[in-house]
Design brief:
Blueprint lengths: L16 E3 L2 E3 L6 E5 L7 H13 L4 E5 L3 H13 L4 E5 L3 H9 L4 E4 L7 H14 L2 E7 L18 H18 L5 E6 L3 H14 L5 E2 L7 H17 L5 E2 L10 H11 L8 E4 L10 H15 L4 E5 L5 H7 L2 E5 L3 E6 L2 E7 L3 H17 L1 H6 L23 H5 L1
Parallel strand pairs: 3-4, 3-10, 4-5, 5-6, 6-7, 7-8, 9-10, 11-12, 12-13
Antiparallel strand pairs: 1-2, 13-14, 14-15
The protein binds iron/sulfur cluster.
Iron/sulfur cluster (SF4) binds next to loops.
């Protein structure tokens, strides 16, 4: 056994592609992305939202390009974005061409609604000339029509239709020598989505963008996404993820990061271990756990803090965390790096955890990190990434170099 980060299965080998300066697939960590819900034609609102999403942990952001007005706003948006952008195109291949012309970093096409191979080829040729990648985004809700069936012939299962739709479009791209491809095969139904991804993962080498489509409201959508995406990631399948919630897209990002943190695939910000409380509890633990979470998340450093209500599991969890509390009646033991460092009264729980946590952060990241991060909500990951909102995208040649 080892304490090193692990995946439950070896990561599937995929061909790396780039969206701007962000590598997806190959040996890159699983990339977090989301999508704006502003009117893309409103460049100012869209850029503002992209910056908020980047600050919340999005490494790639997709924008809908449903019409000419949206395409016309892209040069302004692309010029001011802190993270690479993908244009989401349905139906009209001319919008893909306009997006490429505007300097977009990646495209998402849906094979279910650009069914003309000639038009797809025009887009691929332009993408190839500009060195941008294309995600083939299959969605169970917009699959190509089923070809005419012979008498008595059963229609293929939905997962097969999803895989066939992806392979059809992959074939067009590969015929043109284009391999900067990502794939998604999203469905609302988790077993359908998992089956489709497993199948395509065994058939082609391209990186996979995982997601449960239209997953729902934050409560049920989070669970549905965590199960679908989590099952696949645990099997080593998946190179980038998006959680789709009926909410402000900023809410999607903590869910993405918590999925990755749960599997020890990536770290960002604090991880709080808190007991659910039960009849043994003798302190007011739930408000304390929330207060601890709020403060350590604001510090933005990857640290694990345990807030435990009694001596049953408290010492064990606290020892495994960077900092921990095992509470008892009116007082509690404070742990740092596996050792009890002091015993404090209940009214000192929070300040003691904060103080010990700051010591751990200062040791790991320097004195400034233990104080400067307090005002920031931007997390910082062990796998170092340049803070998104302060990053300027390099030129295309440099990105691909
Ligand atoms: S740590 Fe103690 S109080 Fe908390 S749930 Fe477990 S047994 Fe109950």
């Amino acid at each position: 056994m080892t304490d090193e980060p692990f995946t439950l299965a070896p990561r599937r080998t995929s061909r790396p592609v780039y969206v701007g300066d962000v590598q997806v697939g190959g040996d890159a960590p699983v990339v977090v992305q989301t999508m704006t819900n502003t009117d893309t034609a409103d460049a100012r609102s869209t850029v503002e939202q992209v910056v908020r999403l980047a600050d919340a942990g999005a490494e790639i952001v997709r924008v809908a390009v449903p019409d000419k007005r949206a395409a016309e706003a892209l040069p302004d948006i692309v010029g001011r974005t802190p993270v690479p952008l993908i244009a989401d195109i349905h139906f009209d291949h001319r919008l893909a061409l306009a997006s490429i012309e505007a300097g977009i970093h990646g495209l998402r096409l849906n094979p279910g609604n650009i069914r003309d191979a000639t038009k797809v080829r025009q887009v691929v040729q332009a993408a190839k000339e500009r060195g941008i990648s294309i995600r083939i985004g299959v969605n169970e809700g917009s699959l190509p029509p089923i070809p005419a069936l012979a008498d008595g012939e059963l229609p293929p299962p939905k997962t097969q239709r999803m895989v066939d739709a992806a392979l059809w479009e992959i074939g067009i791209l590969e015929e043109m020598g284009f391999e900067d491809i990502k794939l998604s095969l999203k469905a609302f139904d988790v077993p359908t989505m998992v089956t489709a991804y497993r199948e395509i993962a065994s058939r082609v080498p391209y990186p996979l963008h995982l997601g449960v489509t239209e997953a729902g409201t934050p409560g049920s959508g989070t669970v549905r996404s965590a199960v679908g995406i989590g099952v696949l990631l645990a099997e080593g399948i998946g190179d980038t993820i998006r959680v789709s919630l009926a909410a402000d897209p900023v809410e999607e990002l903590p869910v993405c990061w918590d999925i990755l943190k749960s599997l020890n695939l990536r770290q960002r910000g604090a991880t709080i271990v808190a007991c659910p409380t039960c009849g043994r509890i003798e302190v007011d633990l739930i408000p304390l756990a929330n207060q601890v979470e709020e403060h350590f998340k604001a510090l933005g450093k990857p640290i694990t803090v345990a807030v435990m209500g009694c001596v049953v599991n408290g010492p064990g969890e606290s020892r495994d965390a960077d900092v921990g509390l095992a509470a008892g009646k009116g007082k509690g033991a404070i742990f740092r790096k596996g050792e009890v460092v002091r015993t404090v009264r209940e009214d000192e729980f929070f300040s003691a955890l904060l103080e010990e946590g700051r010591k751990v952060i200062a040791e790991r990241f320097g004195e400034d990190a233990a104080t400067n991060g307090e005002a920031s909500t931007v997390g910082e990951e062990v796998i170092a990434l340049t803070p998104a909102a302060s990053r300027t995208l390099p030129g295309r040649a440099a990105r691909r170099g």
